[in-house]
Amino acid sequence: MDEQYLQMFFDESDEYIQVLNENILALEQDPDDKDVINSIFRAAHSLKGMAATMGFDRLTSLTHKLENALDKIRNDELKLDTEMIDSLFAGLDLITSIVNDIKDSGEELTEVQDYVDELNEMIASHSGEVAVDSVISNTDNADVSVANDVVLDLSNDEKEEILDNKGETDYIYGVLVELEEDSMLKSVRAYMVLKTAAEVGYIVKSSPTRDEIENEDDDNIGREIKFVLISHLAAEELENELFDIIDVQDVKIDNVELDFSEVKKNKAEKSSSSKKSKSSSNKTNVEVSPTVRVDISKLDTLMNMVGELLINKTRLEGLKLEHDTYNDIIGQLDRVTMELHHVVMQIRMVPIGGIFNRFPRMIRDLSKELDKEVDLIIEGAETELDRSIIDELADPLVHLLRNAVDHGIEQKDVRKEKDKPVEGKILLKAYQKGSEILIEVEDDGKGLDGDKLAEKAIEKGITTREDVENMDEREKLHFIFAPGFSTTEEVSDVSGRGVGMDVVKSVVESLDGQIMIESEKDIGTRFTISLPLTLAITQALMVKIDDEIFAIPLNAISETLTITPDRLKQVRGQDVIVLRDKTIPIKEAARQLNLDVEYGKYKELDEIPVVIVKTGERLVGLVIDELLNQQEIVIKSLGKYLLNVEHISGATIVGDGDVALILDVRNIA
Description:
By secondary structure, this protein is of the alpha+beta class. 45% of the residues lie in helices and 23% in strands. The protein has a six-stranded mixed beta sheet. Strands 8-10-11-13-12 form a five-stranded mixed beta sheet, with helices on one face.
């Protein structure tokens, strides 16, 4: 099978699965929303079509069964309740599993027959509850009669569809096409009938439907094809078109007169209510957005080329020739380079909603499993982030959200005792602040106790009681990120054995990000992840340490300053300064990097250059030899042999062609 088409199938399947997930959730909130039902139906239909085209029979069959159920739901033939919603989700999980099977092994390994049997039983039982209404409607609403031989009922939704699609000069026809009795290819002929009709008009409803024609055996397709058609053709012209099809024996066409008064009234009410709800409701039916798919490796190559261009631009600027023409050319090169950089960056950026939208379903399932009521509120899903960062972010967010549901949000009876709403709330929020993206995971649960965390850390030998006495609340809260740390007495199936928060921190830091925590007892907890917009190119402060040039990313810097030696104080053997009533430890950069120099000589200087850097929740003053300039740098990996050099995260090329190492200041103690 062609790898290109297979990858396209995977990409589109993932999109449709996400659309189905979001819309089934929306349907659970508002079972009467026909727009959402139609969106689910279209996504299932498209997924079925792709699976059939690729020859994945089990996936085709499963989506066809789901599509049938959805068709009954949208035609009010099947009752939609919690059990039915759970069944739709179960079917979606099987679809996801089959797609993953194909990704991993190229084969459909997941068994679906048990689910199909259960779905058929459910459809039969749920349909029985509305059977009486269906029978009544068959006699009361027989709007369309085709030559007195066939009755096709039109629902109000289908009448509305006619209103939406009928032009002023169009006709509405009820059509009956009869095939030859000895026709050998009834399904093909029936397909051609509907195809021809669709080419000259708009088919509102048909029996059999196109899907039934495509998926049923030829023996199960009868001789008669009935449909309601909107067309600009006169009846005689339409008849001629249909008689041109091989094996068509007879064609009967009637003009259809319909009463649209109730439909127009309902449509006006719906329009009025939708205007009111648009501004206040976050629910929306989700459609697959049109996109142009580009292999990420091609974007990486393009980004590398832009990086090389930036490096050479910087080198040219470093020549500093006193020549007007030269300077004009450099100025133009600078503008073009920056525009190209901006365009490439925009191509790499994707909305964070791509991963945010996976979580409502997870929260729903966890809430049911733990017998809690939890509402997940998502804000800033349109915020864009580099694709390479997005791909790594899903697992840390999953862990934070699962912890919030399992350990943060209290049980319903406990929340009642605390005079809290029974329904807990979790806020998942993303927004841009300068050159950083901030992601917040906040719950209104029981909060974290810093003293309890500290006691646990002492028990586990992570810290000492003496050290804890000098810590503020935020520093105590950060024990939760220590490897293997947990305050939970029992192992939870939901959140595991407390081995995850250190991994969350490690992943965030591997993305050049930081994670911070705030918590208040019985009020809740908020985790804030700060990330750079991109990992490829960033603004940096160039500094000199022991006659070598180093780069410090600006997103890690709080401020720069020069101090005099008399501002240095000693606290337990550590140099500190007091800056705006905050005590900040002072570290010598050369010592941190284990450079072969005489340490402590900075105290003999008249002025000491210091860069205040952010290390998690703390600020640290880094003593360097000289502050140089700020410039845009292209981040290059050190390669697999130098990956774990302490306090070094990469390298860049500066104006004179030399290599400058990039400082990783996050773990400076």
